[in-house]
Design brief:
The N and C termini lie far apart (about 35 Å). Helices cover about 0% and strands about 50% of the residues. A hairpin with a 4-residue loop joins β7 and β8. Strands 2, 4, 5, 6, 9, 10 and 11 form a seven-stranded mixed β-sheet that branches. It contains no helices and eleven strands. It has about 120 residues and is mainly β.
Amino acid sequence: VQLQASGGGLVQPGGSLRLSCAASGSIFSINHAGWFRQAPGKQRELVAAISTGGTTDYADSVKGRFAISRDSAKKTVYLQMNRLKPEDTAVYYCNTVTRGSNWYPKGHWGQGTLVTVSS
C-alpha cells in the first residue's frame, strides 16, 4: 500500500492549508492514522493521530490550530492547519499508526509534502 501526501506549499503566518493523504488501498478504514512532520535538523515528530473510532490526538504545539479527519470511502486522511506559524515549517508525512504509550508509525513512509510558513 502506498501513501501519498499532498497539499503543502508556501503560506504566510496566520494562514491555512489542508493536507491530504491518499492511500492506494483501504488501510485507513482498519488502521489508526497519523500525520508527522520533520523540520530541518530535527527528528520526525507526531503532529496528529486519529483512531479507527474517530478519536483524535494532537501534539501540544498544534492543539486548537490543526484538525485531523478521515474519509474512509475516499481512502484519504486530511490535516487542516490553521493559524500557521513559522515553526510549523516542515515536511509533513502521513502513516498508519499503532497506539502504545504514544502513537507510533506502523507502515512504510510515503512521500511527504513540504509546508513553508514565511512572510
